[in-house]
Amino acid sequence: MTDLVLLADPQITEIGVEEVGEPLVDLRELGGFAFSHLKVNEGPAWSSVRRGVADRLLHATELVPAGVRLMIVEGHREPAVQRRHFDAYCAELRTADPDLTDLQLRRLASRYISPPEVAPHVAGAAIDLTLADVAGRPLDLGTAVNATPEESEGACYFDAANISSQAREHRATLADALGAAGLVNYPTEWWHWSFGDRYWAWSTRARCALYGPVDADRPA
Ligand SMILES: C[C@@H](N)C(=O)N[C@H](C)C(=O)O
Ligand SMILES: [Zn+2]
Predict the structure, then answer these.
(1) Where are the alpha helices (DSSP H) in the chain?
(2) Is residue 109 part of a domain?
(3) Of all atoms in ligand 1, which is nearest to the CA of residue 186?
(4) What is the largest CA-CA distance in the chain?
(5) Which terminus of the chain is more solvent-facing, meaning fewer CB atoms within 10 Å of its CB: N or C?
(6) What are 75-110's pLDDT values in tens digits?
(7) Distance from residue 45's CA to the centre of ligand 1 (Å)
(8) What total of structural domains would you count in the chain?
(9) What is the pLDDT of residues 3-40, one digit of tens each?
C-alpha cells in the first residue's frame, strides 16, 4: 500500500480545477445500464454524473462482453454525505488505533473515502459500479461494493491477490471496458472509477481537473 498514491496525497490535493461547467446527466435516462438496489445514497442525483463521464460510461457499455452489463451503484454524492462518511470512517480507524496522528488518520481514511474538500463524487466525476448479468444479477468481483480494507482484508484493492480467479477475470473485464473508455480506477477500490477529477488528472498527466463540486439542483 505504501507505493499507492492516495486521494489525501498532496500530489492529488494540490492539482487545480478548471471547471468546464458540464451538467449532471442521469444515467437512468440513457439506457444500457443496470442499477443496483443497494441504495447506498438517497441523494437527488445518486445516479447522475457529469456529461463527459456519462458519455464515457455509455461508450463502456459497448465494450463489455455480450451478456454482461455495467451495474451502477452511486454517482453524485451530496457534500454533507461525503463529510458524514469521512468522519465516521475516521472515528472507526481512531478507535482501532488511538495513537494515529491526524495526518496518518487522513491518509489511512483516504484509502476508502475521499477527504470532503477534494471528493470526486461531490464533483459528479466518479462512479461506483460493478458488473451484472442480463437478468440484473451482480457478478462476483471478489468483495461487496464498498467493503472497507479492514473488513475485506485488503481484497477491495483492485490488484488484490486474495480473490478467486473468476473475480479476477471479472475485474479485468471491468477495467478493460472502463479504461478503454477513458476512466481511471482508484486502486484501493475496484468499483471506483472517475474522469475529470484530480485523480484522473494525476493519472493521465492532465494539467488540471475539469470538475469541481456541483450542486445537484443547480447547473455547474
Ligand atoms: C466509500 C466509497 N464508495 C468511495 O466513494 N470512496 C471514494 C474514495 C470517494 O470517497 O470518493
Ligand atoms: Zn466511489
Answers:
(1) 10-13, 51-61, 79-96, 102-109, 165-180, 198-204
(2) yes
(3) 8
(4) 50
(5) N
(6) 999 999 999 999 999 999 999 999 999 999 999 999
(7) 16
(8) 1
(9) 899 999 999 999 999 999 999 999 999 989 999 998 88
- Asked if pLDDT for residue 220 goes beyond 70, the answer is no
CATH of the domain at 76: 3.30.1380.10
Residue 107's domain comprises: 10-204
| Atom of ligand 1 at shortest range from CA of 114 | 10
Can you list the alpha helix ranges (DSSP code H) found in 10-50?
10-13
* ipTM reported for the complex, 2 dp: 0.98
Task: Compute φ and ψ for 172, nearest 5 degrees.
Answer: -65, -40
Residue nearest ligand 1's atom 1 by CA: 113
Euclidean distance between CA atoms 183 and 203, whole angstroms: 10
Q: Please give the grid coordinates belonging to residue 145.
A: 461494493
Residues 6+ apart with CB under 8 A from 102: none
Cα-to-chain-centroid distance, residue 5: 15
